[in-house]
Design brief:
The protein has 278 residues and is an alpha+beta fold. The protein contains 7 helices and 8 strands.
Length: 278
């Protein structure tokens, strides 16, 4: 959720400003000893003073009161920004955050950066070291793992179910077909990405990674069913079965409607006959 929030924050700012621009925000979550769980984030307002970014403390105080009402068990853990690597400006901003938390975390995302094997997201903690007789703040990279909760998965699934037609409800069959279509579309996109990677390696644009190439070769050998002599008959048989089930359902629905019409006609005819006999 935090990575999605940062990505959405940077994308929205880029669309509004018309050019890439660094964004800043706060990290909230839980901490138990050395185990820290970053669970959510919110944006921070700032101003530029003599070329330096200065956070607006009043805005943070207001946001802190709001998230404490919604998440009373979460605490302020640190801050985030976008960029390639920490520099002097990030150190100056980190000192401002240390007025709120003595040992804050620093999460930095590099939009469009990183390599093909890991996310361009880096987590740091600050240490104070003596350099040339002066105490300076240094950033030390920390290992981390990605995890999702059930509420996050439900929220992402709800977003994925939004359709452009604006219908408020859909059948289970439509949901299943939509899920299959999304899965096939995602598979096609991943295959296209793998193909682009292989072509880039052949041209020398990307370094040759033997582990990735072995995985690609193993994946290509897992799809013998796509051979035309075996795939086409099975595919046509399955299409015929689905079409037959659809036709059978339509016939059953039509028979049910006809049965209801006959019953209503019989009741109406009996009432009219009774009135005439009287």
């Amino acid at each position: 959720l935090v990575i999605m929030n940062i990505s959405e924050h940077w994308t929205r700012t880029r669309a509004q400003e018309g050019k890439p621009k660094n964004v800043y925000g706060a990290l909230i979550g839980k901490q138990a000893g050395r185990d820290i769980e970053v669970m959510n984030s919110f944006e921070l307002e700032y101003s530029i003073v003599e070329g330096q970014v200065v956070f607006i403390r009043e805005y943070y105080t207001q946001k802190e009161e709001q998230f404490k009402q919604v998440f009373p068990d979460m605490d302020f853990l640190g801050w985030y920004c976008t960029g390639d690597k920490p520099g002097a400006q990030e150190v100056a901003m980190h000192k401002q955050i240390m007025q709120i938390n003595e040992s804050p975390l620093f999460l930095q995302m590099a939009p469009g950066g990183g390599n093909c094997t890991e996310l361009p997201v880096y987590l740091y903690e600050s240490v104070i070291d003596m350099i040339e007789g002066q105490a300076r703040i240094l950033f030390v990279k920390l290992p981390y793992t990605l995890a999702t909760e059930e509420a996050e998965r439900i929220g992402l699934d709800h977003v994925a179910r939004i359709v452009s037609g604006g219908e408020s409800s859909s059948s289970k069959t439509a949901d299943q077909l939509t899920a299959q279509h999304s899965a096939i579309k995602m598979l096609a996109g991943r295959v296209k990405l793998i193909l682009q990677y292989v072509k880039a390696v052949e041209k020398g644009e990307l370094p040759h990674n033997h582990e990735i190439m072995r995985q690609i070769k193993s994946l290509s050998h897992r799809l013998p069913v796509l051979q035309s002599d075996r795939f086409n008959p099975q595919f046509l048989t399955q299409c015929n079965d689905v079409a037959l089930m659809t036709l059978l359902g339509t016939v059953m629905k039509s028979a049910n409607n006809l049965n209801q019409f006959v019953n209503k006609f019989s009741v109406s005819h009996q009432r009219q006959s009774g009135r005439r006999m009287r």
